[in-house]
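Section 4.2 – Deliverable D4.2 (structural model, holo form)

The reporting period included a commitment to supply a predicted holo structure for the target in complex with heme C. Inputs used:
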Amino acid sequence: MKGTRPYALALTLAATWPAAGAQDAAPVPAEAGRKLYISACQRCHGINLVTSGIGFDLRTFPQAEKERFIRSVTHGLRAMPAWNGILQPEQMELIWAYIGSVNGWKPAAQ
Ligand code: HEC
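Output (structure tokens):
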């Protein structure tokens, strides 16, 4: 019996470790996205997505139109520069997660 205890502990750690990571995972992309947003997007789209009047008000961007978001950010749209080659697709995903967190989107539908 004594001999099984460290083994049981290892199993417990193995079982709880990924679960703890998964719980932390939700805020982390949004936080990384927030930093990218501040450096790349905020000057036109405003602090906390509150537009300064230059860019589109991202608080009104439809959650259902993620493809449009990626397309507009990648290729630009009129006065908005293209981010292709400046931001990686994963970074656009992080910004998308940040916009969703500010707008209170339900994660399941993102
Ligand atoms: C130089 C200013 C500027 C910067 C920097 C900028 N944008 Fe824009 N953005 C605009 C303007 C202006 C529009 C409105 C374009 C239009 O509809 O004429 C816009 C529109 C948008 C739209 C709406 C596109 C659509 O399909 O209607 C999205 C989404 C967007 N920007 C995301 C971003 C993201 C994400 C970043 C940072 C990576 C960013 N923008 C950086 C100026 C900017």
